[in-house]
Structures are given as C-alpha cells and as structure tokens.
Write a structure and sequence with these properties.
Blueprint lengths: L10 E2 L5 E2 L13 E3 L4 H10 L5 E4 L5 E2 L7 E6 L7 H15 L4 E5 L15 E2 L25 H10 L4 E6 L1 H17 L4 E6 L15 H20 L4 E7 L6 H10 L4 E3 L7 H15 L1 E7 L4 H4 L16 H15 L5 E5 L2 H6 L4 H19 L2 E2 L1 E6 L2 E6 H4 L11 H10 L7
Parallel strand pairs: 6-7, 6-9, 9-10, 10-16, 11-13, 11-14, 12-13
Antiparallel strand pairs: 1-15, 2-5, 3-4, 4-17, 7-8, 16-17
Helix pairs in contact: 2-11, 3-4, 5-6, 6-13
Length: 429
C-alpha cells in the first residue's frame, strides 16, 4: 500500500490569532478531514495494519485568521494556456477578498509570471468591484497569460516591494511548480507571504483532485464538434467524422465527450495504445456494416506511431506531433489502396473549446474554488492548492498535486463505459 506514505499536511505561516470578520457563515474546524479512500475495502487495509488513514483538510472559512485585512495586499496571476472559467475565478477571489474580508489592496499581475518581473514593464492592474464587474461573461483571462519560467528572486522582489501578503496563482502543473519555487524563496528570506494555487487545466489531469475547472465546459463544447462530425458522417456514403480533442497525456476530455454524445464508434486516448493496422481494419469493417463512423482522438494518443520530437514548449511540455492530421492521411491512404469510397471530414475544435466562457456548472464551481482559496490564504496556509475530493472542497500540498499526472485507468469504470458506448474492439494492438 504505497498510499500509506501520503502526507497531506499543509504549510502555515504561523498561528491564527485574529477573529474572522465573517458573520453568519458555516465555519470549518481545522480538525475536519476528507478521507482519501472512500471504499470499505481500502479503508479496511489501513485498519488491519494499524495505519492512520490518509485524509485531506476540508476547505472553508475559519473562526480565526492570520492576516489583518486592513493592511493586507493580495496579488493574482494567471499562467499557461487558456481555459474556460479563468475570469470567473479571478472575479470570485476579488469579490471574496473585498466583501468577506474587507481587503482594499488587490493587484492583478499581467501576462503570467512575467507580470511579477519588473523589467518586462507589465504594470499591475488594481482590482476592485468595477474592474471585475463583467469579466465572467468573457472567455480567456482579462489579466493575460504567458508560458515559461521566470527568475524566482525577481518575482519575490516584486511581492516584497509591493507588500503582497497572499499571492493567488491560477494555472496548471508548470504554474504550480513555479508557485512552489516562489514559496521556497519566500521561506529563504523569512517573509510572511502565502502562496495559494488554484489548479487550472481543462485536461483534468491534476492529481488528488477529482475535477478541475473548465473541464465540464470543455466536454460540453467538444460534444458540439462530435455532433457535427456525426451529421457529416451519417449524411455521406462511407462517411467518416474525425475529431481531435485536447488532453495531452490524459484522455478525460475525449472519454467524457464520447459518453455525453454516445454517437462515437472509436475513442483513441493516450492511456490505451493501439495498432494502426488493427484500427484501420476495424474502421473498414464498421463502414461495411453501417456505412458511417465517428472517431474521437485525444491529442496525446498514438504518439508512438509518429515518433517523439523531444522538443519542448515554453512550459516544458513535450511537443506532440499532430495525431489528427496523421490519422486523416492514413485513413485516406488505406481506403484508396483497397479501392473503397470514403468521405472524411476532419474537425479540430481545440482553440474554440479552451477559449469560451464557462458554462453554468463550471461558473458555480469557479466561484466556490475562489472563495475557498481566499479562506485558505487568510489563515496563513501556503504552498497548497484548493481542490475537491469526494464532493468536498479540500486543501492539497502543491508537491502532491504535481507529483504525477492523473490519467484514465485502463481497467477502471470510465474506460469500460467508453468501450461499451463505442462498441470498439477491446484490444486494438
């Protein structure tokens, strides 16, 4: 049981001694925990060996806080690729700081971590109620974003000069690793600055978090592309609709979009390797049998067929070759070779999906993530992310959140459901 070594302890800047200004809210005790495991079988293993059950802190407002709101300065930064809900999170953090705690100095740092480096010349934006009033209706991030690391000492210089007490970082694993580095420099200098991460990835691949914001919106938008692909495919002789979706090394968007639409015949994800020949043979049989087919492929699938480039983007991620274009051409070649008519339409909605505003479910989720991030920061917690686990909002150390990428379990319920929905061969190797 390797999970016995999990440590969900959250760093703190010091003792909370200031009474919370919140009134009429449900306060959470520091002792409240959410069990990591929720099955009786797993829990029993711990009990049998006399080990303490791994559990996460429950997020929420505390009766006493660490920072004095009257003198506190806060900063917000968004990094990495766009994602539905970024503006919703920014707005939620600002509104909570102002309305719940009475914080008067809030700054938005422009264009990711570049905004924390003075030499780039990106002036911070003062965030008040007027500044964030209408931003939730917009896609993207009104603060701007960028990729890539920056000099940690220069970023902490800015925080120290501007007397920032809490820095909220909204981004994926690269951003969270950067946040951890900022926290280490803060500790080295002996400063009292909290670093609170709000994990952003439509790929839903952050560990120890059930769901990341933007994921449901991405699935909903992907469903529209799949519906279009199905209309095109079913309206032509031997029609094939091929849709490429985002996800990097995790196939969650592809899998959940397939389950939502239930019009897909093949779902190809990074976690399940496949042979090109076996796939093409299965596709050929499908067209002979039904006359049309819909294929969904996640961007990280089938990279073994294309050869790895070993090139990396500004965030340090390996650049993938385009599996969508590759499959499109290989499908065309195969059917031309066997002399079979083919009508193929290829759809790549990636940038549309990530750039739209959050849907209602994600918007509500973003609001609560923002509120709980503020509650955590005000209590002096640091080097952590706000997440959700078993329908509870939680605190997770950044080190655990970035320890590994969350992926679909090939033997789990999700993939079994996808296979049942598509009817694709169990094994395509």
């Amino acid at each position: 049981m390797e999970d016995t070594a999990l440590d969900f302890t959250i760093e703190r800047l010091g003792e909370c001694s200031i009474p919370s200004p919140l009134d009429g809210v449900r306060f959470v005790s520091d002792a409240q925990r959410v069990l990591y495991h929720n099955s009786l079988e797993e829990v029993k293993k711990y009990i049998d060996i006399g080990k303490e059950l791994p559990a996460m802190e429950v997020a929420g407002a505390r009766k006493k806080i660490f920072f004095d709101p009257s003198s506190l300065g806060c900063g917000i930064v968004t990094c990495g690729g766009l994602c539905p809900g970024l503006n919703d999170v920014i707005r939620a953090v600002v509104l909570s700081l102002i309305h719940h705690y009475g914080v008067k100095r809030i700054y938005g740092f422009q264009y990711g971590f570049e905004g924390l480096v003075a030499r780039y010349g990106h002036e911070p934006i003062e965030l008040d109620l007027k500044a964030v009033a209408g931003i939730k209706k917009l896609g993207g991030t009104f603060l701007g974003s960028s990729r890539g690391p920056q000099e940690v000492s220069e970023m902490v210089d800015t925080l120290e000069r501007m007397k920032i007490g809490i820095l909220f970082t909204i981004g994926g694993d690269g951003t969270l690793r950067g946040s951890c580095a900022i926290n280490e420099e803060i500790k080295r200098r002996g400063l009292k600055i909290a670093v609170i991460g709000i994990p952003k990835t439509i790929d839903n691949d952050v560990s120890f978090i059930d769901r990341s914001f933007g994921f449901l919106t991405a699935g909903s938008e992907a469903r529209k592309a799949i519906a279009s692909a199905h209309s095109e495919a079913s309206g032509a002789i031997n029609g094939v609709g091929l849709v490429k979706l985002m996800g990097r090394d995790s196939g969650f968007i592809a899998a959940y979009a397939v389950l939502a639409d239930n019009e897909v015949n093949f779902c190809l994800i990074p976690e399940i390797p496949f042979s090109l020949d076996v796939f093409l043979d299965a596709l050929e049989k499908r067209l002979i049998r039904r006359g049309h087919a819909v294929i969904v492929v996640a961007e990280g699938a089938g990279q073994h067929l294309l050869g790895m480039t070993h090139e990396r983007d500004a965030s340090g991620n390996i650049r993938y070759n385009d599996i969508g274009i590759f499959l499109r051409e290989k499908i065309k070649e195969h059917f031309k070779k066997i002399g079979m008519e083919l009508n193929l339409k290829y759809i790549d909605p990636s940038y549309i999906i990530r750039s739209v505003p959050a849907d209602a479910s994600d918007a509500a989720f973003c609001l609560l993530l923002g509120h709980n991030a503020v509650h955590a920061g005000m209590t002096g917690r640091t080097n952590m992310v706000v997440g959700n686990w078993h329908n509870e909002y939680t605190h997770v150390p950044i080190s655990l959140a970035v320890s590994k990428r969350k992926k679909i379990d090939p033997d789990g319920r999700v993939w079994s459901s996808v296979r049942a929905a598509t009817g694709q061969p169990v094994n395509m190797l």
